[in-house]
Design goal:
By secondary structure, the protein is α+β, with helices and mostly antiparallel strands. The protein has a domain at 126-198. It has helices at 10-26, 32-45, 60-83, 85-112, 127-158, 163-198, 213-248, 262-268, 274-312, 328-344, 350-363, 373-382, 388-391, and strands at 2-3, 5-6, 47-49, 52-56, 114-116, 119-123, 200-202, 205-209, 314-316, 320-324, 365-367. Strands 1-11-10-9-8-7-6-5-4-3-2 form an eleven-stranded antiparallel beta sheet. A hairpin with a 3-residue loop joins β9 and β10 (320-324). α9 crosses α10.
Length: 403
């Protein structure tokens, strides 16, 4: 297995990014398609595997018409919302109904505009299946959630006044709802991922994956439990330190605590001495930073484990295998420090953060290049010409769909 690598730098990308921003401002946003192309070409060209790089072939002109349509629809929607709210709602419904088609065309366009070692990618997913994955399944699952909510509401009405029974029903209802949401999200993740990967082509080669719903649910459940446990732990730790401070400064009598949680206790410390207020301020900042990090940790665990599992079960023509080796703590650290860097620099650190994250993700993406990889790529290069007629049919829709 060999990892991909990224040879770009934050300094190089900053120059591209700042020029893009200035030109977008000067042109009142109309330069955006060209800015997007410049960015993609930079990142693709600097992504390498065995000294072979990726390329992005779309042009700003190809993206411009789709961009104009999107801007026009957005403007029409806002006007309708102001003068004819029902018309705005109908337009929103039309957009939701068209979303599967947009995703389908976007995948076709993006894949055909991407190549590796002079061999184009492609997408052969079925439009009907796109409507199943991105419209029918979500609609059915949403209706199911609504039915669960209605049933729980009527049951509570029936047992109104029976305190113990009401609590039991509420508890069962909450657990059932959480279990259903966990199942629904994992089901959609499975269907959408399989659709996008199984429809992707490399030349004439076919990507394939088969994902177990049980495994996705297990990852999601562990992520939720991790987030809850970490939140409880940080609250307990803060309250322990606060308790020690209160004891050292004269007891709890002078504190006005609305709720016994860390945030309210920290706030109530403002009624103590100067030392108590300084301690509360410092501890408060550390508490909220810790909360952000713990939330990021749970997100990093969920997305990282899903990525590792999906890549580990993906193949190209049953010959080339893949692997993702993301680790939760480093991934969460990069996510959080990138976020803080962008916030505290008022966005100026964005190019550095994007390059840093891209490099980390690629360095933890591996491809099996041992079993005749060079011969495989050479074989695809010979059949590349057969895709020429498809490239001209690419519709300029690009909504950044990925997995």
């Amino acid at each position: 297995m060999q990892a991909l690598r990224f040879e770009g730098t934050g300094k190089e990308y900053f120059k591209i990014w700042i020029v893009n921003i200035l030109l977008i401002i000067v042109t009142l946003g109309f330069y955006y398609p060209w800015a997007k192309v410049r960015t993609k070409r930079y990142f693709y060209a600097n992504t390498l595997l065995q000294d072979r790089n990726f390329e992005y072939h779309a042009t700003g002109k190809q993206l411009f018409w789709g961009f104009l349509i999107a801007v026009a629809l957005f403007a029409v929607y806002n006007i309708l919302q102001s003068v004819f709210p029902l018309g705005g709602a109908l337009l929103a419904i039309v957009f939701v109904a068209a979303l599967p088609w947009i995703i389908w065309r976007s995948m076709k366009f993006n894949m055909l505009m991407t190549s590796f070692s002079n061999v184009r990618f492609g997408f052969a997913g079925d439009l009907k299946q796109s409507y199943m994955n991105f419209f029918a399944y979500p609609l059915v699952l949403y209706i199911g959630l609504a039915l669960i909510t209605v049933v729980a509401f009527f049951l509570l009405k029936l047992v109104q006044g029976m305190t113990v029974l009401s609590l039991i029903i509420v508890g069962i209802g909450v657990l059932a709802t959480l279990a259903y949401i966990l199942y629904a999200l994992s089901f959609l993740k499975k269907k959408n991922t399989e659709y996008l990967i199984n429809g992707t082509r490399y030349g004439q080669g076919k990507f394939s994956t088969e994902i177990e719903l049980k495994q996705l649910m297990k990852i999601a459940l562990k992520a939720i439990l991790l987030g809850v446990l970490l939140y409880i732990a940080i609250n307990a730790l803060v309250m322990l330190f606060v308790g020690l401070l209160v004891l050292a400064t004269g007891g709890m009598e002078s504190l006005q605590i609305a709720k016994p949680d860390a945030a309210n206790i920290l706030g109530s410390l403002m009624s103590l001495s100067l030392v108590g207020r300084i301690f509360a301020g410092v501890l408060g900042v550390l508490f909220y930073i810790a909360i952000i990090y713990l939330g990021t940790l749970a997100v990093a665990y969920y997305s990282g484990r899903n990525r590792n599992y999906i890549y580990g079960n993906t193949k190209l023509d049953e010959k080339i295998t893949f692997a993702s080796t993301l680790r939760t703590k480093p991934y969460a650290w990069i996510m959080m420090t990138n976020f803080l860097a962008v916030i505290f620099t008022i966005g100026l650190a964005y190019p550095w953060a994007k390059v840093r994250m891209t490099r980390y993700m690629l360095e933890h993406t591996e491809v099996n290049t041992e079993a005749g990889f060079d011969e495989y790529v050479s074989e695809k290069q010979k059949t590349e010409s057969s895709l020429g007629d498809q490239i001209g049919d690419a519709f300029n829709v690009d909504v950044g769909i990925g997995f």
